[in-house]
Amino acid sequence: MSDEELDLNDIERRMKGAVEALKHEYAGLRSGRATTSLLDPVTVDVYGANMPLNQVGTVGVPEPRMLSVQVWDKSNVSAVEKAIRNSGLGLNPMIDGQLVRIPIPELNEERRAELAKVAAKYAETGRIAIRNVRRDGMDQLKKMEKDKSISEDDHKMYADEVQELTNKFVGEVDELLQAKEKEIMQV
């Protein structure tokens, strides 16, 4: 075996990245319960730049169906309110001094089914990303075998390891999807 080897750690790191991206997508998917991560995708146009909401104020959960944003600079309160309203999350914030209150409306059955479909779409995107990493690894193996830097047996062994990693991370994506669907459908 030569110096050139398949970097399984790199493949695993890239697959983990796909799972982490899915977790981040799911954090912004509303399930009817208040969670600070719901506002993570919101950016506010302040000081001539787009800034994440959590860099403009403190996000809190005072009640199970209410979020609050304590805006640090009074001049940014209306910008925060506008950013939340225009975020596409279907939220209707109310200004109370420097505090922006955001009631989380009850989800109806139709909206829950819609959100479950979105969650499934995110999961499929994650699976595709993982499969793309697998394909890159397999292509690398074929090239290494063609260049005679690994034997046919080593190729088979590495291919099995890459497939194991793929199965493991696709399984994680499926578990995340089941948990998110259960959370969305919970009344």
What does this structure look like?
With 187 residues, this protein is α+β, with helices and mostly antiparallel strands. It folds into 2 domains: 8-26 and 108-185, Ribosome-recycling factor (Topoisomerase I, Chain A, domain 4), CATH 1.10.132.20; 33-103, Gyrase A, domain 2, CATH 3.30.1360. Helix content is 54%, strand content 16%. It has a 4-stranded antiparallel beta sheet, with helices on one face. The termini are far apart. The model has no long low-confidence stretch (mean pLDDT 87). Belongs to the RRF family. This is Ribosome-recycling factor.
Strand count: 6
What's the alpha carbon Rg, rounded to whole Å?
22 Å
Global shape: elongated
**CATH architecture title of the largest domain:** Orthogonal Bundle
Strand content: 15-25%
* CATH fold call of the largest domain: Topoisomerase I, Chain A, domain 4
* Secondary-structure-derived class: alpha+beta
What's the total helix number? 4
Low-confidence stretches: none
Instruction: Describe the main β-sheet briefly.
Output: 4 strands, antiparallel
Fraction of residues in helix: 40-55%
